[in-house]
Amino acid sequence: MQEKLTHLKELESESIFILREVAAQFEKPALLFSGGKDSIVMAYLAYKAFYPAPIPFPFVHIDTGHNFDETLTYRDELVKKLGAELIVGSVQESIDSGRAVEEKGFNASRNKLQTITLLDTLEKYKFDAALGGARRDEEKARAKERFFSHRDEFGQWDPKNQRPELWNIFNGKKHLGEHFRVFPISNWTEMDVWQYILQENIPLPSLYYTHEREVFNRDCQWYAALDAIPRRPTEEVVVKKVRCRTIGDITCTGLSLSTANSLEDIIDEIASSRITERGGRTDDKRSESAMEDRKKEGYF
Amino acid sequence: MKDTTGYLDMELLRFSTAGSVDDGKSTLIGRLLYDSKSIFEDQLQAVKDASKRLGGEEVNLALLTDGLRAEREQGITIDVAYRYFATPKRKFIIADTPGHIEYTRNMVTGASTADVAIILIDARNGIIEQSKRHSYIASLLQIPNVVVAVNKMDLVDFDETVFNAIVTEYKTIAETLKLKNVIYIPISARDGDNVVDRSSKTPWYNGETLLHLLETLPVRVDENNLPARFPVQFVIRPHSDKFHDYRGYAGRISGGSFKVGDEVTVLPSNTQSKIIAIDEGLKSVTEAYTPQSVTIRLADNVDVSRGDMIVKTDIHKPTVSANVSLLVCWLNHRPLNVGGKYIIRHTTDETRAVIKDVHFKVNINTLENILDDKTVNMNDIAHITLKTMKPLKFDSYQENRTTGSLVIIDEATHETVGAGMIVHDLEDQSFSI
């Protein structure tokens, strides 16, 4: 007798179908890996989708140079464990070569500069599809993005001219110089991702669990007291028990006060949380359509 | 939520809603999200701020779903938006689509994967053109369940006779359109009557609340009884020492189930073989069901590639033909070109095709067939025939929503320009009221 198909199984099945579609429809895909939990889940899904063959595309990490050490250590170990190839695109190199100009001031972030490095990296290696771990529940502009999202020769997204996407038929046809962003876990929510990590027993970077850290408070949000974020003289450094709810670049990753030290604790915490996970992300708060604007230019 | 094991055991239900600004669709979605605690404080604050900026007095929950700048500025929904919420029983995916006739293509898109369609009817206005249009689309896309939510019951004093009159009128439409499972609920989305909790104001209504219904409607029950279908998506050959002879066919089961030992036929070559293993991720299973993504290994070293279809040998087989008759919803500004060549994508298969003929168009407001005007513009629904360069392996859409659907792609622009539902019997699809 058939066991009930759980929602996690169904989501996994859908994501694996899309990963295989990408391998079949494109000549040179890549998986964008940030070290965050969503891209970690993507990496494991890709491993399952092609097992026992190796993952047929490399991982690309756009390194802002402002990453937590834990993220980089975890990345290198994971790549080794899954037998994947890793390509790093460096924002620092984009700045050094004059392709990008560093923002100034206390709220400076390299988040926006990543777009330049990302597009340059895709072009350099002639990638025609970039797999991303974005989810539709994260942000309202993302709620309307397709699984297969077309980008013109400038890497731009045109939200008003998206291809209709029906049933499970995905159209990856493109002209020379254009590429696609593909989002296999579009239909997952933050809770689904955590439940899947629990179900599959996927190890995570220690940053996701509670740890003591030197932090400071800015605009009601805790940040890591590291050199990547210049502090105002009034911003006092204190030690708190914190964890990351999302992991990005140090400058835009808000830390939450938490004592959660297991996946079960984290799931409880999220279930009772009244703030979205991107609530701690400074990059989304710059304007109401911050995400839509960055996406149009070619952001993740 | 301490009981994490409960969450791991949930099912997934996809439903679509279609409607315009005034029928309370956004309010209903807002209520489902709000009552299931799926709206967070920072989202609510952002919506409050935006409502104020746009000059509204009240908090406009529609702004939660209007994601693009143009939509917020113009106060209309242009595109399909996907929303998510969960209760302890199920996880829900809402395909929220605009209801105006110009957006038929978006409604069709949203309906294509739905298990349930919610059709909202304003109790004061009764069944209007738009209600028929939504019902036609639910029928065309073969959505297994239709919930007719008679909304704004508070504005008709929760009058049973108003509700009953709408139900009686709708039943005629449901019969004409051959809608499968239709359920009627009197609600007030604004105040929450019969949405999550049973209303004390409708003692004459013995049915379920909307949310309870969504939590308990059987999902995907028929899929595993369908003839087994497995469109081959990708061939896995590791070429490694450890898996030297491994050759697996990856894909997603699109009907019925397969188990180890099954005698199978590969189409279109008609090669026979037997399943020796089914792999799912890192482990092997003895049986797999719709819609699982698995990898099938066969006993013989047969020639199988992407676009082929593996089916069970002893069951009803799909049609293998280059002549395909279908209902199409046109999605593009450039009208359909009779005699023109297009790219067809059907399951994992791709081929070129020429449009042979347009037989009739459907007026989706009156549900009448139009025989004298054969120009198929964006948002039109038409019955067409096409001839493909190589034969397709298909069922009718009525039999199987996956192996019976295809999309039409423009050769020059590469845009998806048409959504097709394959028909066997024309009579089945000619509606008239």
3D architecture notes:
The complex is a heterodimer of chains A (300) and B (433). Chain A starts with 6 loop residues before the first helix and ends with a helix. The model of chain A has no long low-confidence stretch (mean pLDDT 87). In chain A, helix 1 (7-25) crosses helix 2 and helix 6 (190-200) runs antiparallel to helix 7 (263-272). Chain A folds into two domains: 7-193 and 288-297, HUPs (Rossmann fold, 3-Layer(aba) Sandwich); 204-282, no CATH class. Chain A has helices spanning 7-25, 37-50, 69-82, 91-96, 114-124, 190-200, 263-272, 290-297; strands spanning 29-32, 59-63, 86-90, 129-131, 148-151, 179-182, 211-218, 221-224, 238-244, 255-257. Chain A has 300 residues and is α/β, with parallel strands linked by helices. With 433 residues, chain B is α+β, with helices and mostly antiparallel strands. Chain B folds into three domains: 4-219, Rossmann fold (3-Layer(aba) Sandwich), CATH 3.40.50; 224-312, Beta Barrel (Elongation Factor Tu (Ef-tu), domain 3); 319-429, Translation factors (Elongation Factor Tu (Ef-tu), domain 3, Beta Barrel). Chain B contains nine helices and 22 strands. Chain B has helices at 4-8, 25-35, 41-53, 62-65, 69-74, 104-111, 129-140, 160-176, 210-216; strands at residues 11-19, 81-86, 90-98, 116-122, 145-151, 181-186, 229-236, 248-252, 257-259, 263-267, 271-280, 283-285, 287-289, 293-298, 309-312, 319-330, 341-346, 349-363, 368-370, 381-394, 405-410, 416-422. In chain B, the strands form four sheets. Chain B has a six-stranded mixed sheet with strand order 2-3-1-4-5-6, sandwiched between helices. In chain B, strands 7-8-14-11-10-15 form a six-stranded antiparallel barrel. In chain B, strands 16-20-18-17-21-22 form a six-stranded antiparallel β-barrel. In chain B, strand 17 and strand 18 form a beta hairpin. The longest helix of chain B has 17 residues, at 160-176. In chain B, 49% of the residues are buried. The interface between A and B is large, with 67 and 82 residues.
